[in-house]
Amino acid sequence: MRTVRTPLQPDALLDLEVQAPTLRDSLRRVGQSLANAARELYKSKTAFIGAIMLAILFTACLLTPYIDRYSPVKQNYRELLQPPSAKHFFGTDRYGRDIWSRVLWGGRRLITISLLAVSLGLVLGVPFGALSGYYGGWIDTVAMRLVDAWLAFPGLLFYLILITIAREWKLEGVWNDAALVFALGVAQVPRLARLVRGTVLAEKEKEYVEASRVIGESDLYIALRQILPNCLSPVIVQATVSLGFILLVVAALSFLGLGSPPPTPDWGADLNLARDHMETRPYVAIFPGLAISYAVLAFNLFGDGLRDILDPRTVER
Question: Among candidates 261, 250, 267, 129, which has minimal Cα distance to 201?
Answer without folding.
Answer: 129
